[in-house]
């Protein structure tokens, strides 16, 4: 599903250049649940931006579901993001003046799906995350955990090949974090490929494989005995 070979990325800072990713080799098979860990400055945000087609590597190759991701103009990049990827962010990134239903339906608008089908599909995903009765509520009427559930429903609604979750529990208390990870595990159990960027060891242990980044290189990539979140809720 994801195949990265010898990926390098540098950023110009004044007259200097900062080498952030230093030859990353990384692949993810369909249906995997993988966490990426690393301290601030390890390169995990840069890697996530490249995986999310929000940034491009300087060299190396990236294939997503067999499609080479290289030299894309913004229109094609946006099209690929819509087609392949669902994003979940620490800060939820919901539109405050729109209802939960409208937030979930929004990506489908950009896919040219009719209003009726958009709303039907959005409602079915709100049901999936346990928020059907909150469909008409705006984000400021929801708790942090509910907002993240709306964000997960929105990410799933466009039927992405891969879910990319960036610190998805970072703004939540421990109990709510584990409830959200239980939902993520259920979605993965159904076969969805999911990448979770996290700095929290207990969250990483709830995935099936942990990739450790340090100073722009992968220092460890290990399969782990998955801890089920439900046991901690």
Automatic annotation (TrEMBL):
Gene Ontology MF term list: ATP binding; ATP hydrolysis activity; transmembrane transporter activity
Keyword field: ATP-binding, Nucleotide-binding, Translocase, Transport
Keyword ATP-binding set for record: yes
Keyword Translocase: yes
SUPFAM superfamilies for this protein: P-loop containing nucleoside triphosphate hydrolases (SSF52540)
GO CC annotations on file: membrane protein complex
Superkingdom of origin: Bacteria
Domain ABC transporter positions: 2-233
SMART domains in UniProt: AAA
One Pfam match: ABC_tran
InterPro entries tied to this protein: AAA+_ATPase, ABC_transporter-like_ATP-bd, ABC_transporter-like_CS, MacB-like_ATP-bd, P-loop_NTPase
Gene3D superfamilies found in the cross-reference section: P-loop containing nucleotide triphosphate hydrolases
Assigned protein family: Belongs to the ABC transporter superfamily. Macrolide exporter (TC 3.A.1.122) family.
Protein name: ABC transporter ATP-binding protein
Species: Psychroflexus salis
């Amino acid at each position: 599903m994801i195949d990265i070979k010898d990926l390098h990325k540098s950023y110009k800072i004044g007259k200097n250049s900062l080498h952030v990713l230093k030859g990353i080799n990384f692949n993810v098979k369909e249906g995997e649940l993988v966490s990426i860990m690393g301290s601030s400055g390890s390169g995990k945000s840069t890697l996530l931006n490249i995986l999310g087609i929000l940034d491009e590597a300087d060299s190396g190759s990236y294939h997503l579901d067999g499609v080479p991701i290289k030299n894309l103009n913004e229109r094609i990049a946006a099209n690929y993001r819509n087609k392949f990827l669902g994003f979940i962010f620490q800060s939820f990134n919901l539109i405050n003046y729109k209802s939960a239903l409208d937030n979930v339906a929004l990506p489908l608008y950009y896919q040219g799906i009719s209003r009726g089908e958009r709303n039907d599909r959005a409602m079915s995903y709100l049901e999936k995350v346990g928020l059907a009765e909150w469909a008409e509520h705006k984000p400021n009427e929801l708790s942090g955990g509910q907002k993240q559930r709306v964000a997960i429903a929105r990410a799933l609604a466009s039927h992405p090949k891969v879910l990319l979750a960036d610190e998805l529990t970072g703004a939540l208390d421990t109990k709510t974090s584990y409830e959200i990870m239980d939902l993520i595990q259920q979605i993965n159990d159904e076969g969805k490929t999911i990448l979770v960027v996290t700095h929290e060891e207990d969250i990483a242990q709830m995935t099936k494989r942990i990739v450790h980044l340090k100073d722009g290189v992968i220092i460890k990539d290990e399969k782990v005995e998955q801890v089920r979140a439900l046991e901690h809720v």
